[in-house]
Design brief:
It is a multi-pass membrane protein. The protein has about 575 residues and is an all-alpha fold. It has 23 helices and four strands. It folds into two domains: about 375 residues, Amino acid/polyamine transporter I; about 45 residues, no CATH class. Helices cover about 65% and strands about 0% of the residues.
Length: about 575
């Protein structure tokens, strides 16, 4: 049974499918190949620059101060290692499926399923958060024009109830109600009541997901045009924010640079990493690229570099315009310009935020169906998920299911926990993709003619560098290591995860010394693994539950229906 759990999909078969097209079982062989490197770079930027930079960056800056710019650099380096590994895979495995397909080639079926299931957190579940954020920006924009939707149509039940209870506590304490508490009280009192329960739904979030799903259903060409338009607009706004913002920077706000130490900076890991999620999503469009082996690597790397430069500049502008202690707000970019009396910029930022989150929704709604399509082709999911529309040439059934999974929960779900879960799912995929490069089979051609890939990960021998870096890390973390070991019986999940990371680092350092592994994939594994352990323990518990559900589905269906198991591949 062990061998069957880790059966690998032959790389030669994947390359042959990429060359000839894959029959979905309904007479349709492939997707439209219309994407070039500019389109892929645009899609990468569209996926990355979204809710993170417009909202979660404020909380990160509140915790880390001006030093949050260091975290953007660290996260960019971490994502950079992973991006290079993704680029290697995308060049040598030019077929839809992203990290799921890469894991199938490198580690086998069980790990591939786990990654595919984790990617649902990044794409489908993560898009619920994006839809809720979009709703907030959209409502703010409407109010700026004097339009007001009923409050019970713009929020989820949990958030509404919590806000109402806070208003009641303020009334009981005799404290004057703030504008937001008055709004919460009015929302509760005016909401319709059915069977004794106050009804709250986030209708704008639901509607935008439905509209985006229709667009992705119709076709990749239409989605490409919309993405390119949205990206150009939001990049112009971000550049405007940076240029105008620097005129209002007070250098005194950058001191102290690390007001809460480096520990404070690390509290923003989830928020900052969430701002980077998405560049990998373009690898799901491999079968719609004109030249995936050349253009996918370029698109991922170009988009990551552009976004990193913009993020670092925005971090300096935000923390320079106002003291970092004021930045724990839902809309930090608009807030800082309101603070310095430039409300007109705030309105433009609000418009850009709506557009930015729309583009994120679009790219992720494109990505998830293509992963399910790949899993269905391999027999791990029902055949319907691989159906290609005869006219639009899109995975139509998967697109509809993705739309339902995102749209319906966005009506009533609270977004808080979802951000951390999305980050775990993404980092988990990054770890395995980085490690997978080390085990990727060497295939030089397809039927002796076509090259297997046009991007090669630079080889830098990590024999001595990785062990030295590990020793340096242990030295600077010696107090935490010692405390975790001495109190291992009483430690919480967070410190147990830290000890697991220490063991992983030791193992990889030894293996790198013995086998002369390249430093890039090894550091990709270690950097992503470290960011993983800094995510709150509660989110990990939910993640383990999510993985448990996924394994039940795999062993009750995928394990038995796999094409590798039934010799149909």
């Amino acid at each position: 049974m062990f061998d069957s759990l880790f059966r690998k999909k032959p790389l030669s078969k994947i390359l042959l499918d990429a060359e000839q097209g894959v029959d979905d079982g309904h007479g349709t062989h492939g997707l439209k190949k219309i994407l070039g490197v500019k389109d892929l770079t645009s899609m990468g930027i569209a996926a990355v620059v979204g809710a993170g930079i417009f909202s979660t960056i404020g909380t990160a800056a509140f915790n880390g101060g001006p030093g949050i710019s260091l975290l953007f650099i660290i996260t960019a380096v971490t994502c950079g290692f992973s991006a290079l590994c993704y680029a290697e895979f995308a060049s040598r495995v030019p077929i839809a499926g992203s990290a799921y397909t890469y894991a199938y080639v490198s580690f086998g079926e069980l790990v591939a399923w786990i990654i595919g299931w984790a990617l649902i957190l990044e794409y489908a579940i993560g898009n619920i958060v994006v839809a809720i954020s979009w709703s907030g920006y959209f409502n703010n924009l409407l109010e700026g024009f004097g339009l007001h939707l009923p409050a019970w149509l713009t929020t989820d039940p949990t958030t509404a109830k919590h806000a109402f209870l806070l208003s009641q506590e303020a009334v009981a304490a005799g404290t004057p109600l703030t504008e937001s508490l008055l709004y919460a009280q009015n929302a509760w009192n005016t909401a319709p009541v059915i069977f004794g329960k106050h009804i709250f739904v986030n209708l704008p979030a639901f509607i935008i997901v439905v509209l985006i799903s229709i667009l992705t259903y119709i076709g990749i060409r239409e989605s490409k045009k919309m993405t390119n338009f949205l990206v150009v607009f939001k990049l112009l706004v971000i550049i405007l924010v940076i240029l105008v913002g620097f005129f209002f920077v007070d250098p005194g706000n950058w001191s102290p640079f690390l007001p809460n130490g480096f520990e404070g900076v690390l509290r923003g890991v989830s928020a900052v990493f969430y701002a980077y999620i998405g560049f990998d999503a373009i690898s799901t469009t491999a079968e719609e690229c004109k030249n995936p082996q050349r253009d996918l690597p370029r698109g991922m790397i170009y988009s990551l570099v552009i976004c990193t430069v913009l993020y670092i500049l925005i971090a300096f502008v935000l923390t320079g315009m106002v003291p970092f202690t004021q930045l724990k707000v839902a809309d930090p970019l608009a807030f800082v310009f309101d603070t310095v009396g430039q409300k007109w910029i705030g309105y433009i930022v609000s418009v850009s935020a709506v557009i930015a989150t729309t583009s994120v929704l679009l790219v992720f709604q494109l990505g998830q169906p293509r992963i399910w399509m790949s899993m269905s082709r391999d027999g791990l999911m029902p055949k319907a998920f691989a159906k290609i529309h005869p006219k639009y040439q899109t995975p139509w059934f998967s697109t509809i299911i993705t739309g339902c999974i995102v749209a319906i929960p966005s009506l009533f779900m609270e977004s808080g926990l979802m951000t951390d879960l999305t980050s775990i799912g993404t980092l988990f995929a990054f770890v395995l993709v980085s490690a997978g490069v080390l085990t990727l089979p060497h295939v030089t051609n397809i039927k002796g003619t076509a090259p297997a890939g046009k991007f090669k990960l630079p080889y830098i021998n990590g024999k001595f560098i990785v062990p030295v870096l590990y020793i340096v890390f242990i030295y600077f973390s010696r107090d935490r290591v010692l405390s975790a070991v001495q109190n291992i019986g009483n430690e919480g999940l967070q410190e147990i995860l830290f000890l697991i990371f220490i063991i992983l680092g030791a193992i990889l350092s030894v293996l790198t010394f013995i086998r002369n592994y390249s430093i890039i994939p090894i550091l990709g594994v270690l950097f992503c693994a470290y960011l993983l352990i800094e995510i709150p323990a509660l989110s990990w518990l939910y993640f383990f539950c999510w993985m448990g559900v996924g394994l039940v589905i795999y062993f009750s269906y995928g394990y038995w229906k796999s094409k590798l198991a039934t010799n149909k591949s």
